[in-house]
Specification:
Blueprint: H1 2-16, H2 20-37, E1 40-42, E2 50-56, E3 59-64
Length: about 80
């Protein structure tokens, strides 16, 4: 009898699960956290120097573009004199 009660408790607990609003709230919180991990911010509009990484709920996750210095290969020439 105890096993039956434990089994039914488990089945009812698992079948209910989190409600839809709780699930959506959790997903939004995860997206905001991921946005912060890439050093971004969830805001209504991105500036020109930012790009949209993905969307946090309704607002985009704006990440600052990395300024990378151009790679300059040094050209070394040797002058040979005869």
């Amino acid at each position: 009898m105890k096993i039956l009660c434990i089994f039914l408790t488990f089945v009812f607990t698992v079948s209910c699960g989190p409600s839809v609003p709780q699930k959506k709230t959790r997903e939004v919180a995860e997206r905001k956290r991921e946005c912060q991990l890439v050093r971004g911010a969830c805001k209504p509009e991105c500036n020109t120097w930012e790009y949209v990484h993905y969307y946090c709920d309704v607002n985009p996750c704006c990440v600052v573009r990395d300024c990378q210095k151009p790679i300059i290969n040094k050209i070394t020439t040797k002058l040979y004199r005869k």
